């Protein structure tokens, strides 16, 4: 039995203090995630706008997220990841509070777009910071630790947010904003250049030779990776949009059961992922693991069409998609960073953020449209086909990368 504690100890050891502090910052930030999950309900229930207008607000959020990814990547390379993270958290926190005071549709749309730009500009800077605080041997585990914080924080925020929203929707805007600001204050306290030697100062940034790094747009293999990421993210976002509707309408599961199944995903990740990555990261087979993970995601959607049942079908699918997520996402971050240097890391991370944002815009809308027009069975076959094509695409990318390196 002593083997199990030892495995967990090894999985979490060897990470720098800065990595741990950055994960705590992310945990605090994500523990306040309440506005986005409940925005459509807020628009329809509290402000009494129709579903179409609520959906448009979420589309505007997606458009702002795309802009934020581009902008955050470029600003990170110019001003440094610490400054962009701090500014995004502070300004984003203030904008959450401002948005909660808006009642006119135009004002809500404008504030939502600005909020999304600020929120998503944080992501490229955060990815760059993780790369700075890690080394090649433990980088994938550092990204996994960050994902662990995001999953735990999102679970806490969504659960508390549902309780609070049922009593006063406006409070979720204050809590989301204040947790952003609280995360910024912690970041300033423990990871500022004056307090952490791993955080480059403005003077360090200015003293570096002005070498223009390779543009990600000139990296053909990376651009193909971005396209494959959009395809994968499109399928993965169905988990949070069409899948719950399928569970409710087709499998006849209750809201409590649906929530419990969704929570199972985060629980498995929290228990298993760091140990799994610890065992795999030294094998240096990022693209192979990504391809395998996406194939498991394909199987998770195939289950809906080939296995009869209700609760058991949902549980089996959740196990497959969770395994696929744990194999693919950490190694996607590692592959992205492996293509960069200190002069272009923000732009690469920004484009990676944009890929997910694009999928967030088109995935939920087209997924619900296909399900509504042709039925869920047709949607799942489409998702399976896209997932298999994406998995094969990553294997082809692996072949191209290995051929170029040899």
TrEMBL record:
Pfam families: MFS_1 (PF07690)
CDD domains: MFS_MdtH_MDR_like
GO terms for cellular component: plasma membrane
GO molecular function list: transmembrane transporter activity
Membrane topology reported for the UniProt record: Multi-pass membrane protein
Transmembrane segments: 20-42, 54-73, 93-118, 148-165, 171-191, 222-246, 258-277, 289-307, 313-336, 348-366, 378-397
Domain Major facilitator superfamily (MFS) profile: from-to ranges: 18-402
Superkingdom of source: Bacteria
Cellular localization per UniProt: Cell membrane
Protein name: MFS transporter
Organism: Flavipsychrobacter stenotrophus
């Amino acid at each position: 039995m002593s083997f199990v504690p030892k495995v967990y100890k090894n999985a979490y050891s060897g990470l720098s203090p800065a990595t741990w502090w950055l994960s705590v910052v992310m945990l605090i930030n994500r523990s306040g995630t309440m506005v986005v999950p409940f925005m459509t309900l807020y628009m329809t229930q509290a402000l009494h706008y129709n579903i179409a207008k609520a959906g448009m607000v979420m589309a505007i959020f997606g458009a702002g997220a795309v802009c934020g990814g581009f902008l955050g990547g470029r600003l990170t390379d110019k001003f440094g990841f610490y400054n962009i993270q701090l500014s995004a958290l502070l300004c984003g926190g203030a904008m959450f509070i401002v948005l909660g005071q808006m009642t006119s549709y135009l004002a809500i749309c404008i504030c939502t777009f600005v909020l999304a730009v600020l929120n998503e500009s944080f992501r490229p800077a955060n990815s760059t910071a993780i790369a700075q605080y890690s080394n090649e041997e433990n980088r994938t585990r550092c990204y996994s630790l960050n994902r662990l914080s995001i999953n735990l924080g999102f679970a806490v925020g969504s659960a508390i947010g549902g309780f609070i929203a049922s009593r006063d929707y406006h409070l979720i805007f204050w809590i989301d904003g204040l947790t952003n600001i609280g995360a910024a204050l912690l970041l300033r306290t423990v990871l500022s250049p004056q307090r952490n030697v791993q955080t480059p100062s403005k003077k360090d940034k200015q003293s570096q030779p002005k070498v223009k790094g390779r543009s990600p747009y000139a990296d053909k293999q990376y651009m193909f990776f971005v396209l494959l990421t959009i395809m994968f993210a499109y399928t993965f976002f169905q988990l949070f949009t069409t899948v719950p509707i399928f569970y409710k309408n087709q499998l006849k599961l209750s809201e409590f059961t649906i929530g419990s199944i969704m929570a199972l995903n985060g629980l498995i990740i929290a228990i298993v992922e760091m140990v799994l990555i610890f065992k795999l990261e030294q094998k240096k087979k990022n693209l192979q693991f990504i391809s395998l993970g996406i194939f498991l995601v394909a199987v998770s959607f195939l289950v809906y069409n080939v296995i009869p049942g209700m609760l058991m079908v949902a549980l089996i699918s959740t196990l497959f998609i969770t395994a696929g997520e744990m194999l693919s996402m950490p190694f996607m971050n590692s592959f992205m960073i492996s293509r960069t240097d200190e002069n272009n890391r923000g732009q690469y991370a920004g484009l990676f953020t944009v890929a997910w944002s694009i999928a967030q815009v088109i995935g939920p809308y087209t997924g619900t449209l296909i399900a509504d027009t042709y039925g869920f069975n047709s949607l799942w076959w489409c998702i399976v086909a896209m997932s298999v094509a994406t998995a094969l695409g990553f294997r082809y990318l692996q072949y191209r990368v290995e051929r170029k390196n040899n």
